[in-house]
Amino acid sequence: MKPRATPGARVRTSALTRYLATMLVALGSGTVALAKEPVPAYWQAIVEMEPSSPITSLEDWDTLVGFLTMASQTMHESANLTGSVAGHPLDYYYDQYVLQPEPKAKLEALRNAARQSRDAGDESGVKAALAQAEPLLQAEKYKAAVVLELSGYAALFAYHRGLLAPWLMRAAPSERASADATVQSAYSALVKALDSAVRAPNYDAKARGRLNELASEAALEALNAQRLRLIAEQAELQLPNPVPVDALVRTTACPPAVPPSPDRQRPGLGSDFPASEEFYPATPKSQRVTGPVTVSLLVSDTGCPVRAEVDRSSGDPALDLGALELAMAGHYVPGSKDGRAVPGELRFKVKFEFKD
Amino acid sequence: MKQPVRSTLLVLLAVLSVAPGAAWAQAPTQAQSDDAEFARIGRLMDRSRAIESIADWDAVLEQIGKFASPPDARKAQIPDLSGRTWADYWTQHVMRPDAKSKLDELRALAGKQSAAGDEKSVAETLARATPLLNAEKYRAMVVVSYGNNEGMLLYHRDTLKPWLDRATDADRSAADATLESAQNALLAAFETSLQSDSPNLTAAMALMSHASVENLEALNSMRLRLVETQSSLPNPTPVAPAIRSDVCPARVPPATDRSAPSLAKDFPAAESYYPRFLRSAWIAGPVVVRATIADSGCVLRAAVETTSGSADLDWAGLQLAMDGRYIAGSRDGQAVPGEVRFRIIFETHDTTP
User: Fold this and answer.
1) CB-based contact B245 A265, cutoff 8 Å
2) Out of B234, B247, B339, whose CB is closest to A337?
3) What is the pLDDT of residue A14?
4) Which residue of chain B comes nearest to A344, CA vs CA?
5) Same-domain pairing of B280 and B197
6) CA B141 to CA B90: how far, in whole Å?
7) pLDDT of residue A207
8) What confidence tier does A41 reach under pLDDT thresholds 50, 70, 90?
9) B336–A345: do the CB atoms touch at under 8 Å?
10) pLDDT tens digits for A253-279?
C-alpha cells in the first residue's frame, strides 16, 4: 500500500476518514479491510456545506433535507458497528438531535409556503420563506455534522477495540474488562461533549474541537499500548499471530547486483533506506494505530530483497503490510563468506508513530 | 497388505541405527548413521564366528556393555509400551549371573594363561568360552532388535500424540488398541526368538519386524488421516524454515516461457533423503514444500507448507529442497525471483536383496 491521499482530503474535517473507518470495521467484522466504496456523496455534501454558505435556492434546501434524511438511515445501518455508545446505539444520538418533530414541522410548513409562492409566480414570497428557513436549516446541518463527528470518533475507538479482539480472546478476562472500560469511558466523555456541542451556539468551533480532543491521545494510547503488550506476551507463549498477513514475494526483476559487505556474513540495510512515514498506510494512520512491526527479510546474494514476512505483528494487518512494503522497497547490501557474496535473512523493526 | 522383504544387511543397519548407545528410538535424521561403524559391529557380534583372541573377547563384552548402558543414562529408564525399561531387558536376558560368573572365571583363566605365554591353553579356553559368549551375543542382538522395533512403536506413539491430543476419543482408543496389539505381537516374537532351539539372528529379526509391520503401517495411515482432518489447525510440531547462508551455485539461465521458478531436471529423488530410521519405521507421507528462488536459480529458503505429521520427515523434505537445483522464471526476457511449491513423497518401498 503506497501512501496516498486520504479520500475526501479536501473536506475540512476528518469526519470523512472516520466514517470510512466505520465502513472498514463493517467490512472486516472487527479486523481490517480496505475501503473500496467511495464516500457517499451526500455525506461529503453535509460536511462540505460550510455554515457560512447560505442556502439560496429551493434546490439547496431540498438537497440538504435529502442529505439529512439519508444520513439518518446510514447512522441506523452502521449503529451496530460501534455497539452501544454510552448506553445507546449511534443512530439514537442522530435522531435525538437532528430533524426533531418541531423544526421538522416548521420546515415542512415553510417549504409548502415556498412552493405555493413559486406556483403563484410570487418570487418575493419564495425569498421570504427561504429567509425564514435559513437559520433552521443551518442549525440542523450543524447538529448533523456534530453527531457525524461523534460517530467518526466512536468508530476510532471501535476500530482499536476491533484490533484488540483476537488478542483479548487469548488473554485473561481482566484484559478484556480493561479494554472495554477504556472504550466505554472514552464513549461517555464523547457523548457528554456532544451534548454541549449541540447545545452550543451554531457553528461553535470550540465546542466541536472539544469532541476532537476527547478522541484523546490518552485513551487511544492506552488501547495501542495494551495491544502491543498482549502481542509481546503472546509471542513469548509462542502463540501464532491471529491476524496473519501473507509474506510478500518479489516476482519482478531485481535491481543491479550490489557488492557484498566484506566484513559481515549477514545482509545489511543500504544507505538510502526509506523512512517509515512514507509507508504508513492511510487507514491505520487515520485511525492513529501505532506500533513496531518486526520484519524478516530474505536478501539474495546480489542484495535483492526477495521475500518479506512479518516476524512480530503490530496487531493491525494493514500496518504490517505497510512494513512489508517498506522492506521490499528498501535497498540492501548482501553479506559475504570468504570474500564471496552470500544470501541471508535480515530482521529489523519498522516503527510507525503517530505525529499530529 | 505389503510385507517388507529386507536384506539382512538392511535389517541390521536399521537395528544399529537405533541401537548404538541408545535406548529405544533415536531418530537419526539430523546426523546420518555411520555405515562403517555398523559394519564393524555387525562383524563383531556375528555369533557364527569363534572368539579369535582375548582382545576380541573383550571387545564383545565392551560392545554388550555399550548396548546395555546408553551414554544418556536416563534413556535406560524410559519404559516401553509394556512398562519395562531398556535396563530391565538387559538385566533379565543378557549376561545373567550364572553365565557371567562362568565367563568371568574363564576370562581370568585366559588372562593367567596369556601372562604365562601359554598360547595353546589360551586357545582352549577361547574355544570353551566361544559357545557361551556367542549365546550372549545372540541374546544381546535379539534384545537390540527388540529395542529397535519397540523404538519404532514408541516413535509412532510420540509422533501421533500431538495430533491425537486434538482428535476424538474414538481415534485415541483406536491408536491405543493398535499400539497394544503391536506390542503384544512384538513381545511374543521376542520371547519366541529368545527361546529358539536353533538360534538364527536373521530369522529372529524378520520375526520381530514382521510382528509389528502391519501395525506400523496402520499407525502411519492414522497419522496421515489426522493431519488431513486437522489441516485447518496449526501444525503442532512445526519445523523452522531452512534459510541459505552459504555461497550460491553458479547462475543458471531462466526459463523463457514462464514467470515462476521450476525444478531443474536433475532434481533429487525423495529416496536419497529418506532417513533410514524413518523409512524402516514406516514413517511415510507427503511433505509439501514452498521454496523461494532467487533470479539466479539459487534456492534461498524452504518452508513446510503441508506437514507429513512428522517433524523429522518434514525436516528431511527441507534438506532435499535446499539441495535441489532450480530454474528461475523470467519476465520480458529478464530473470525474476519467485516461489515454487512442490510435494515430496516419502514412500516405504519393498526392498529386494
Assistant:
1) yes
2) B247
3) 43
4) B245
5) no
6) 11
7) 66
8) low
9) no
10) 999 999 999 999 999 999 888 999 999
- For residue A26, being part of any structural domain is answered with yes
Contact A342 B260 (CB under 8 A): no
Chain A: give the shortest CA distance to residue B163, in Å.
Answer: 17
Identify whether B234 is part of a domain: no
Which chain A residue shows the shortest CA-CA distance from B335? A253
**pTM of this prediction?**
0.78
Chain A closest CA to B337's CA: distance in Å? 5
Q: Whole-angstrom Cα distance, residue A213 to residue A337?
A: 56
E strand residue ranges, chain B: 242-243, 262-263, 285-293, 299-306, 326-327, 329-331, 334-336, 338-346
pLDDT in tens, A96-129: 999 999 999 999 999 999 999 999 999 999 999 9
Q: Nearest Cβ partner of B292 from A266, A306, A338?
A: A306
Q: Which residues of B touch A (CB under 8 A)?
A: 234, 243-248, 259-260, 292, 294-296, 298, 300-301, 329, 331-332, 334-339
Q: What residues of chain B score a pLDDT lower than 50?
A: 1-23, 25-32, 351-353
Which CATH number is A324's domain given?
3.30.2420
Do A195 and A281 lie in a common domain? Answer: no
Judge whether B264 and B324 are in contact, CB under 8 Å: yes
Domain with A200 in it: 15-234
Residues B219 and B258 in one domain: no
B351 falls within a domain: no
Last residue of a domain, one of B229, B254, B276: B229
Put simply, the answer to whether B296 touches A337 (Cβ < 8 Å) is no
ipTM: 0.77
Q: In which band, very low, low, confident or very high, does the pLDDT at A38 lie, cut at 50, 70 and 90?
A: very low
A82-91 pLDDT, tens digit each:
778 888 988 8
Residues of B in contact with A338 (CB under 8 A): 247
In one-letter notation, the amino acid at residue B119 is E
Q: What is the pLDDT of residue B22?
A: 40
pLDDT at residue B20, as a whole number? 37
**B40 in a domain, yes or no?**
yes
pLDDT, tens digit, 9 for 90 and up, residues B203-231: 888 899 888 888 999 999 999 999 999 99
Pair B167, B247 in one domain? no
Q: Which of B45, B51, B35, B36 is nearest to B66 (CA)?
A: B45
Residues of A within 8 A of B162 (CB-CB) are none
Q: How far is A31 from chain B (nearest CA, A)?
A: 20
CB contact under 8 A, A253 and B295: yes
Contact criterion met (CB < 8 Å) for A306 and B296: no
- Cβ burial, residue B49 (10 Å; 0-12/13-18/19+): middle
Nearest to B283 by CA among B343, B231, B346: B346
On chain A, the residues whose CB falls within 8 A of the CB of B247 are: 301, 337-338, 340-342
CA B238 to centroid of chain Cα atoms: 21
- Domain range enclosing B265: 242-346
Cβ neighbours of A266 in B, within 8 Å: 245
The total number of structural domains that make up chain A: 2
Mean pLDDT, range A280-303, rounded to an integer: 92
* CB-based contact A298 B292, cutoff 8 Å: yes
Bridge pairing between strands B326-327 and B262-263: antiparallel
- Grid coordinates 496473519 are at which residue? A244
* Alpha-helix runs per DSSP H in B69-118: 86-93, 97-115
